[in-house]
Amino acid sequence: MYDQAVNKEKPTIEKSWEEVMKKLDILDDDLVNGYKDDIDTLLVFAGLFSAVVTAFTIESYKWLQEDPADTTSMLLNTTVMLLTQIVQQNTTNQLPIPSPPPTFIPSPSVV
Question: Where are the domains of the chain?
Fold first, then answer.
């Protein structure tokens, strides 16, 4: 029994480092594969999140524009004001001048 132990080679420094490197390579590969899977999952989530946010932004952008009916109403009101001023210049009666419409401001809930 003692002869078998004596005949067995003692590990050299190079062989010891090779064994350590093999084990570390296995651990590193496992760690890198784990990180790769995590990053893949995060990239898929980021892509889906971006698609949803983009769709919502495109739809909500319409809420930030003034309604065309409001623009038409404002233009008609301006026309009435101008006509009233012309009439006042030609007559002695003073007609009340309508107040100008307020400028468009999107509601805070859509901003």
Answer: 12-64, 67-111
